[in-house]
Every structure is written in C-alpha cells, then in structure tokens.
Amino acid sequence: MSETESPQRRIGVYICHCGGNISDYVDVERVREAISADPDVVVGKTTLFACADGTQHEMIDDIHAEGLDGLVVASCSPKLHTTTFRGVSTRADLNPYAYTQVNIREQDSWAHTDDHEGATQKAIALVQAGIAKTRLSLPLEPLRVETVPATMVVGGGITGLRTAIGLADIGIAVTIVEREAEVGGWVGRLGPMFPHNASGRDQISQLMAEIARRPTITVLTNAELVGKTGSFGNYTAKVKLRTETTEELRQFQVGTFVIATGADVYSPEVGELGYGIDGVVTIHEFGALVDAAQGSGSLTWQGRKVRSVAYVYCVGNRQVGGNEYCSKFCCAATVHASIKVADLDPSIRQFHLHRDVRAYGKYELMYTESRERGSVYMRYPDDALPSIEQMPDKRLAVTVTDALTSQDEITLPVDLVVLVTGMVPRDNDDLTTLLKLPTGDDGFYNEIHPKLRPVETVVDGVLIAGACQGPKPATEAVSGGLAAVTQSAGILKKGFAELDPLVATVTESLCTGCGDCLTTCPYDAISSYVCDEGQKASIAAASCKGCGGCVPVCPEDAIDLLGYTSAQMMAAIDGLSVKEPVA
Amino acid sequence: MSDHGGTGEPMPRILVFSTNNISDPGIDLAGSRHLHYPATVSVLAVPCSSGIKPAWILHALETGQDGVFIASDGEECAYLPDCAERTASIVTQAQALMAEKGLEPQRLKMAAVCSVCAEPFANYMREFAAALNELGPRPVPVG
User: Is CATH 3.50.50.60 correct for A267-422?
Assistant: First the structure.
C-alpha cells in the first residue's frame, strides 16, 4: 500500500527513557526527531517514565486536546504494559486497538548496550513500524457472546460433588458426569479420615443428600464426556451413557466445564520394596484393614494378630527420574493411621521409615500425638531404600539404615509392612485430547498460573479442580472446586462474555469458495455458506482463537487476522526499512 | 547492509518474526540478560508462526532486509498441534517465491525458540548474521 492511499491519521507517539534503562543506550531525542517527520504524527514526545501516573494523564490530555486517533508507546515489552496503555486509550475515549506498544527496552537498549548507534537506529525503525501498524489499525470492539448459565462437572468425587453444590447455590444448573457406576471416588471408599476422623463414606453420603435437595443438579453415572462443540460460554457437550446392554448419546448446553477427575493411587511393581510378599500392603489396603478392625477390636492379618507394623514412606513418589513430586496427603494419612492403630491396641509396635515427615500445618499435631503414643520415626537415606524379606516364620524382616543416628543397618522383625504410596495422574487420554487440556511433565493438568489463575486453563471456559491438577489432600481439592465455582460464576453470571476481537476475518469479495481453509482450523471456527456469488467461507469470531493459522492457507489472500492484517504487516516491514531522514 | 557495528564489518539486516506467547518472551529474556546480538536484528511479533504469510517474507527481503528468521513455536504452540509442520510449509513456499526473485534460500531460516531460550536466540542471531555475511550482499532486484 502506498502512502497516498493511507488515510490521514492523528497519532501520538511517546518514547520512554525508562529512567535511563532505554535512554542510556538509545538517543531517544533523535528517535523523537526522526519519527516526528511523519505527517501523521501529531504529538511526538519523550518521557522519563511512560507508565507513570502523570504521563498517563498527559497522554489522555493530549488525546483530547489534539483529537488523536492512534497511540504508540515505545517503551518496554508489550507483556508488561499493553494493558496499561489500552486502558489509557479507553479512558480517553480512543479505541484501545488503535494502540501499538513498541519494545525498545528488552528487544533494543538492553540487548545492544554495546552499540548505542545501532540501538538508536533500531529504535527509529521499530517505532516507524509501530506507527505503521497503528496507522492502519481498525477500531475494534470486544466480541460479546451470550452465555448459558449451566456447568458440566466431570468427575463425581468429593471435589466434583462439592463443586456442583456450590454452583447450584448461586443459580447455575449442573450436570455431573461420572465414569464409574457410583459417585464418591476414592474418598467414598474411605473410613475415618484425617484430621477429624470423619468417615469418607459418610462425607460423600452427606454431599449426596445435599445434592438430592437441589433439583438443578443432574447426576449421571456410567457416563463419559465424549464431545465438545460450540464456543466460549455456549458449548454443546455430548455425553455417552452406558448400561449393561445399551449405549446412549445425550447432549447438554453448558457455559463452562469443571474438570474434577481426580487422581489414581500409585500401584507398586511386584518386587518393589517387597510388594507381592504376603504381608506387604499399600497404605490404601492397610486403611481398609484398620477400618475393618474397628468392629472386631483387633488388628489381624491372615487370621494372625498383628503385633508390629513398619511403614515405608514415599513409595512411587519423590523418585529421581520417576514421579518426582510429593503427593502431600500420604504423610498425614499414615500418621493418622498409626493413631487409629494405637487406638485399637496401644501395644502394637509401629516403625515409620521416612524421608521427611511432611505432616504440615495443623497435621503437625497428629504427628506429635503419634510419637507420644509410641510410634518410632526413623529417616532412611535417599539412596538406601529399606529392604524387605520374608523370614522362615512368615514374618517380615525390614532392614534399614537410620540416617540420623548411625550408619549401621538395623533389621526390624514385623508382622506387616505398609508401603506409603502416593498419587499418580489418572489415565484420561480421551478426555485430555477431547478438551485439549495441557498436562505437565508429571501428567497432571496444568493451570494458567499457580497463584493468580489457579483453576483456569488455556482452554476458555474449561476449569480444573482437585487432584487432577496435582496430588493433594481432600481439603485442598475441595477448596479448588469452590474456586472453580467462583470462576464459573464470573464467566456465566453476567449473561454474556467479552472476548478479544483480534480474530481472523474473511473479505467476502475476495473469497472464491475454494474451500482450502475449511479443514485448517482445529477449533472448527471456519464454515461455509452459499450466497448469490456461490460458496463463501466465514469465520465464527467467538470460536476463533486468533492464531492466524488460516491466513497463509488462503490462495486469494482473503483472510486477515485483525490487529495483524497483511496491510499492517507489510507497512510495518516498510517502516523497518525507512532510513533516518538526513538532517 | 549496514556498517554501524563500529568494527567496519558490515552487519546484515535481519527481520525476526516472533510469537507473542512463546518466542517473543524468549527474545525479551535475551535482552533482560543483556546478551548481545547485532542491533541490525529487528523483531515483529505475531500470535503464531503458522500465521506468517510467505509474501511478508519476500517483501522484507525486497525492502532492505538481508535475511528473515522465523522464531517459531515448535511443539510448544498452544494453538495448533501441527504448528511446526505448518510453519515449515510456509518456509518452503516462501523459498519458492524467493527462488523466482533470485534470492538464495539460505536468507530464510526457521528455528523453534522457547520462552526461556535467551542464549539460543542470541546464538542463532550471531550465526545467522555470520552466514549472511558469507553469502554476501543481496542480489539487486531485476525490473
């Protein structure tokens, strides 16, 4: 596009010193002079700190006084202040998408501290490119989409159930989709749990009673989410319902999803720390044994009274090259189990072979109680796992080095060995692929930000909560579920959502209906329609993620990504090549 | 070519296409760590390297850039699972256009640059600048 075709714009350009971070290496005054030669630059200023309150006010005043219709700030990385200056634009009634941030700090002054002349020329070129982008910017409005006040909760464990109640209580309809025949998950199979001895089974029953009182919650068991179409705030979810003989597909309209699929328990390999030998059990198997003993009043294994137990901590967790994470719940669960055992029979000898006892927060009190009631805690070295062998009398010999007292090995004869196994991610490949959920190296789902956006994912409207995000005790899992309630409400309660308008568009007059673009979008944003001139492509703005992947696919150059149109990119490239005017 | 490197050695002009969420933060980090690369390298960011048009690459080479470098998303792309293949296909198409204009295919390079790939990026730039220097000045466009 030649300059004469460009409409006359009134652009304000601010070049930041960043208190010397930029101006120590870039001659900002020369940059200002160079770009002020552009006839569309009505205001060209340097400023000590562009982001300072005073400067922001000055920009707003300039926009009003000079009737500016475009803004360029040359300062730091767009990651830091795009939102700031879009806000300045909005406050000055200037379309925020007429703003361009030019990075002359991270990508100029700081990278070329050894070349002041080069950095200055580069700054001029970058600012010219930024002005070119703003010159051709179109006023854009955030996309407004209607939202459906309904959420699908995937997973009917303690997290999913509590989440559903929270959602129902703020007026959002809920469908719980549980893959198993019964809700409740792992917690639903547990007896008394730490810290207050409330039974897992009872807590699930309580939640189910609450759910029964709320007609806006639908619980589906033997059910799996198998399809998701539509766009942000208004999805069609396909659920497969199984009976022994039939399969049925049902559709639900939902605004958001909360994924609360939980975790699995680590299953030791046969031979791993003696697993497979009679009397070597996991903490989950041991828990069931202790709960069963509550009735009889005596802890037995294979008909024999149990007189001594050794717990081996961190099995399948905190392993270099394996599951490197800590599962967080297992120390507290084991300490709690030892108190239950002491309640049953205080004469049972209990040895805890650990690598650190992470009974954190209030769980520390259980740890103190466990020790006061006779449990012996010994730290084994990270590189010397205990070994377990069966003795001729069928009892077990546990050989361990106590890292804190002596380097000598000691052998403990015990009746039971409990392997304290942690959590592993569930095998949910189909769901992960369907929702395009990002997983970490550990196989658990990843949130956008652990502190600031702890239950949101990069997939719009899909929230995660509980142990599917990473190992954690039920307490923390439920907190995550309630955070997901808040996020769902934030999206759905307004009745509409606003999306970034930087999406792909088709210029109808250029589209020849060749269909090349139709299969290129994995988000199904591109479809075709028939008009008087034949078939044309169209892009659903609410489904478009704004990647621009369809743009180069079009042989007719009919697709443009707003904010990065071909005209803008070509002009920016031209801007980079414009030489500094000779004074 | 520009010779303001101070050494008298001409520095080739390089346009880098970066991606907003992945390679641009990596390039930012190179600056934050004050890793030096030629100041004749300029960066334009786009959302995803699969959205770069071959025509933009050709235009850059015809308006004063000596080389174009695509700092692609590679396997990390949050948008497109086949981003690496798509970007590679854009490179192939652009090189075909370049061949028509008598531009050497070596003037276009692509490499995945991750969000913490500061050092690799600075190295890529130094190597690419050296390779372009070896290639010599751009052929003068005909017509």
Answer: yes
Full domain range(s) for residue B28 = 14-135
Q: Determine the residue of chain A that is closest to B48 in CA distance.
A: A547
> pLDDT for A432-458, tens place per residue?
988 878 788 899 998 887 888 899 987
Instruction: Give the dihedral sign, CA A393/A396/A400/A404.
Output: negative
Q: In B53-90, which positions are buried (b, 16+ CB within 10 angstroms) versus exposed (e)?
A: bbbbbbbbbebbbbbbbbbbbbebbbbbeebbebbbeb
CATH topology of domain A150-262+426-496: FAD/NAD(P)-binding domain (3.50.50)
Task: Identify from B80, B87, B93 which residue to disrupt to test chain A contact, counting A C-beta atoms within 10 A and taking the largest count.
Answer: B80
Q: What does the pLDDT look like over A6-17, one tens digit per residue?
A: 558 999 999 999
The answer to whether residue A287 scores a pLDDT higher than 50 is: yes
* Domain residue ranges of chain A, discontinuous segments joined by +: 1-141, 150-262+426-496, 267-422
- CATH label, A1-141, candidates 3.40.50, 1.20.1280, 1.10.10, 3.30.160: 3.40.50
Question: Which value does ipTM take for this structure?
Answer: 0.94
Residue B52 to chain A, least CA–CA distance (Å): 6
pLDDT digits (tens, 9 = 90+) for B8-23: 567 899 999 999 988 9
Rounded CA separation A462/A437 (Å): 9
Q: Provide the pLDDT for residue A498.
A: 81
**Using a CB-CB distance cutoff of 8 angstroms, which residues of chain A are in contact with residue B125?**
none
**pLDDT tops 80 at residue A97:** yes
The H or E element spanning position A64 is helix A53-66
Ramachandran angles phi, psi of A67, nearest 5°: 60, 45
A150-262+426-496 and A267-422: same fold? yes
Answer whether residue B7 is part of any domain. Answer: no
8 Å CB contact of A79 and B35: no
Cβ of B2 under 8 Å from any chain A Cβ? yes
pLDDT of A1 higher than 70: no
What CATH number did the domain enclosing B24 receive? Answer: 3.40.50
Structure tokens at A572: 């920016």
- Asked, for residue B9, whether it belongs to a domain, the answer is no
Gap between the Cα atoms of A283 and A306, Å rounded? 16
**How confident is the model over A326-343, as pLDDT tens digits?**
999 999 999 999 999 999
Report chain A residues whose CB lies below 8 A from the CB of B138: none
Residues 6+ apart with CB under 8 A from A531: A508
